[in-house]
Specification:
This protein is mostly helical. The chain is built from 23 helices and 2 strands. A two-stranded antiparallel ribbon has the order 1-2. Helix 7 runs parallel beside helix 9. The protein starts with a helix and ends with a helix.
Length: about 450
Amino acid sequence: TGDALLASKFPTRESTTKRFLRADNPGSYSFKGINRVNGDFEGDSASTDDLEERAGGVGTLEKLNTLKAFKSISRGVAKATNSFSKKISRALPIKSKLQVWSNNGKSVSFVRKELGMDGLDSARLTLAKNFKFYDDYVTSQLPLWANKQLTPREVASKLSFRGLSGAVRSNPNFKYYDEYLVQQALVWAKKDADVDKILVRLGLNLVPAAERSQAVNNKYYDEFVAGLLRTWKEKDVPVTEVMTKLKLDQLTGEALLPHPNYKYYKNYVKNNLKAWTTKGDSLDDVAVRLGLDNLQGKRLEAHPNFVFLEKYWTKRGKYQENGWLKQGMTSYDMWKKLQVHRVRASVRRQSATYEAYEKYVNLIDDHIIRLHKRGFQDDQLPRLISKDATADELREKTIIWIKMKRPEWYVKFSLGLDGLGENALKEAHNFQFYKYYIDSTNAVKHTI
C-alpha cells in the first residue's frame, strides 16, 4: 500500500515540476489537469479515481496526501505568477510605468528613485538620462494637484523642498512649483478671490510688509492681483469698489501710501484716468468716479483720491495725446480735429492751435523713431499715414521735420516713399515734400 502511495505521488510531482520549469516561457505555460474550486486547486476527476483504485482501500489517507500535493502546486503557481509579474513589470516601457505610477498615486520622490536619479545633486539631475521621464511625470501631476486644490505648502512638500527661502529657486523642482502657482494665481483672479485669503494661502500674511517683495511667493501674489486688475478693468469696476477690494478704504495719509496693495490701486486708477481722458470726461465726471463729489475744502484735499483728481487736471493733455496715439490717430486726423486749416497762414505758426498740432506731430515722430532704435524693422513700425492728407498739412509737417532734424529714413517712411526705386520715387505724389526736406536740409548744411 505504501509503494502504491509513493507510485501515485511521484508522477504528480514530476508533472508539476515540468509545468513550472516552463514558467519562463509563458507561451508554453499550461493549467491543463488543474481546476480551481473555491480558491483551491484540485486534480481532474479521472486522475482522482485512478489514485483511489491503486490505493487499495486507503482513500482517506490518499486524499490527505493528494491535498498536500495540490497545496504544494498552489504555492508553486503563486511563486511562478509573482516571478512572471516581475518580469512583465521590468519589461514595461518607461512611459507605461509612468502611467501606472500616476494611477497608483506614487510620489515624486518614489519616481525619482525608481528612475535611478535618487541622490543626484541639482547639476547632475537635469543631465541624467531618465530626466525627461521624470520631467514628464512631475508635469503630469500638476493638474491633478490643482484639482485637489493643494496649498503651496503641500506642493512644496511633494517636491521635497526644505523651506521656501530664496535658495529654493535654484532647485530643479522649483520650475514645477512655479508653473503650478502661476496657473493657480490665474484661477484665483478669475474667481475674484479675496486678497487677504490669498495672502494667507501664500503664507505672506506672516511676512512683514517691508520684506514681502523678497519672499518667494510674492511673485504669485503679484500675478494674482494683476489678473484681478485686468478682470476689474474689463468689467469697469468702480475705483471706489477696487479700493475696498484691496483693503485700502479705511486707510488714509501715512498708513495708505506704504501699504503693499497701494501700488496696485494706483496703477488701476492711472489706467482709468487715461481712459477717461480719451473719452473727454469732464473734471466733474472724474471727481464723481473718484468718490470726491460733495466734498469741499480740507475734506476734499484730505481724501486719498484727491491726488488723482489733480493729476487728471494737470496731465489730461498728455493722457489724451497718448490715448489718441494708441488709437492710431494720424497727424492729419489731428489737423482736422483742431481745424488748423481755418487759422490764417500768416499767423498760423504763432497760434495755440498750431502749437497743439505740432506737439502731436512730434509725439508720433518720437514714438516711431524710438521703436526703430529698439530694433523694430520698417514693416513692424506703425504707419500713421493718411491717404486723405492735404498738401497744406504735409507741407507744415515737413517744416516740422526740418526744424526737428528728423532723419531722412523717417521722412521717407512717413511719406510712404520707403522701398521705392529712383524712378518710382520721383513719380510718387509725395516726392515733392521729400525733395523739399532734402533741399532744405542741404541748404542748412551748406550754410553751416
